[in-house]
Design a protein that fits this description.
Number of strands: 0
Order of helices and strands: HH
Number of helices: 2
Radius of gyration: 25 Å
Structural class: mainly alpha
Shape: flat
Strand content: under 5%
Low-confidence stretches: none
């Protein structure tokens, strides 16, 4: 029974990784063309911040958020 389980596991892993390695990577130009075609969702996530962390970047706008305008 253990040999059959091991064999099926090895076959499954081989088929999954074999098909992934068989695919060629698109060039950067191809990727940009696909992105320009649309239909993709790109998610960017920033690192964790702490609530007590001071904001060290000064705003260059003339209106401050606390002025209410």
């Amino acid at each position: 029974m253990a040999i059959a389980t091991w064999s099926l596991t090895a076959l499954f892993v081989g088929l999954v990784f074999g098909t992934a390695w068989g695919q060629s990577s698109p060039s950067a130009a191809d990727v940009l063309e696909m992105l320009r075609g649309g239909g993709y969702v790109i998610v960017l996530r920033h690192g964790a911040t702490h609530a007590d962390q001071a904001d060290t970047i000064r705003s260059t706008s003339t209106t401050s958020p606390s002025s209410g305008s």
